[in-house]
Design goal:
Structural class: mainly alpha
Largest sheet: none
Number of helices: 8
Radius of gyration: 21 Å
Mean pLDDT: 80
């Protein structure tokens, strides 16, 4: 994945600091010839200038999304941590919530569902997610879940439980399972068009 692609996904919080670190690492680790060092520094400078530009553009887009989402009913923003951008992405990809008969159908549409050989009380740590579904909606659900679990007591407890039960790729699997639980909440709020009231203790 390129540096610019990573930036678009919000992975760089301090481009200047990272640029300085990479430049230092390049000089100390690879001992580049002096004739090459200047060119490498120029390439890094251009790359991180592009990253900073993308960051500024994302701020503009996020602000525009925030303003537009205010114009439509959006009970999802009542969930602490989700924010206007992720909630707008989820709503945009779902469309009319009533076209899904239940939360399981929505989860399957988003690709946050597991293979059929599992039982109703399955343990998903040894199974794989389905390989189809709306990848954009899956991305929004996963990213939103990762934010919301930091604020919501129930999701946090559930994530930590699944994390402790998963021997391999613990975060990835625990987050997917927590996202499946989050899908149920999103479906209920959109279907009833009601604000979220967190459980006692949050």
């Amino acid at each position: 994945m390129t540096l610019s692609a990573k930036k678009v996904r919000g992975r760089f919080d301090n481009p200047d600091e990272i640029a300085a670190t990479l430049q230092k690492a390049a000089r100390s680790s690879y001992r580049l010839p002096k004739t090459v060092t200047h060119s490498v520094n120029q390439v890094l400078a251009v790359s991180f200038s592009a990253i900073k530009a993308y960051k500024e553009q994302l701020k503009i887009f996020d602000k525009a999304i925030e303003e537009q989402i205010k114009l439509i009913p959006n009970p999802l923003t009542s969930i602490k941590g989700i924010g206007p951008v992720y909630s707008a992405g989820i709503i945009a990809e779902i469309g009319d919530i009533h076209r899904f008969k239940d939360h399981a159908a929505l989860a399957k549409f988003a690709g946050i569902s597991w293979t059929k050989h599992q039982s109703g009380n399955f343990t998903a740590s040894n199974t794989k997610l389905i390989k189809f579904g709306n990848r954009y909606l899956r991305y929004y659900f996963m990213e939103a879940t990762n934010k919301v679990r930091l604020h919501d007591h129930e999701l946090k407890r559930f994530y930590e439980l699944k994390y402790s039960q998963t021997p391999k790729t613990a975060h990835k699997r625990a987050l997917a399972l927590t996202a499946r639980k989050f899908v149920r909440l999103v479906y209920a709020l959109l279907h009833s068009n009601r604000l979220y009231i967190p459980p006692k203790g949050d």
